[in-house]
Amino acid sequence: ETLYFHKENDKEDDKLCDSLEANTYGSDRKTNSRELKENCPPDRSLSKNWPLISSIIVYCIFQLHDMAYAEIFPLWAVSPKKYGGLNYSSADVGEVLTITALLSTYAFIAKLSGFKLTLMIDSASVLKYVPSVSISTRLFLLQNRAVIQGQRGAANGISMSAMSLFKAAGPAGGGSM
């Protein structure tokens, strides 16, 4: 029922907007232009849709950070403690990477050892993973709500393309750091 309801409303809105756009070129342009602005989505162009563009920017920055993190973490973990690393073996790094970790706790985690270190790394990993999935899901919802149903495919395509470019730049940027 909900999909049917939204589909019918979108069709009615599109018909209203199309008729108002057609009438704008008629005799009473000012009145029709005002009605068009009030009753139709303000920016039918995806490039001028600020809610969509802003959610795509946030999504891209998040993915860039996530990829840079994936590049930096193993290097930090195998570094000796005297350089601020964890002095982990490759096996330890592999174990942690199955869960991932939280950046803000690294300075404190490096000072721990034994069971406390393992507990903190595992806790940080869970804290990193859950928000990551939540953020991506929420950004997808924001992007889909920012456009009319007929533009969702194009909006998601733009979002995925931009995100892919940022994901590609992440390891290069993180590795150079």
Automatic annotation (TrEMBL):
Annotated membrane topology: Multi-pass membrane protein
Cellular localisation: Membrane
GO CC, one annotated term: membrane
Keyword Transport recorded: yes
Keyword Signal attached: no
Domain of life: Eukaryota
Keywords attached to this entry: Membrane, Transmembrane, Transmembrane helix, Transport
Regions crossing the membrane: none
Name of this protein: Major facilitator superfamily domain containing protein
Organism in which the protein naturally occurs: Parasponia andersonii
Lineage: Eukaryota, Viridiplantae, Streptophyta, Embryophyta, Tracheophyta
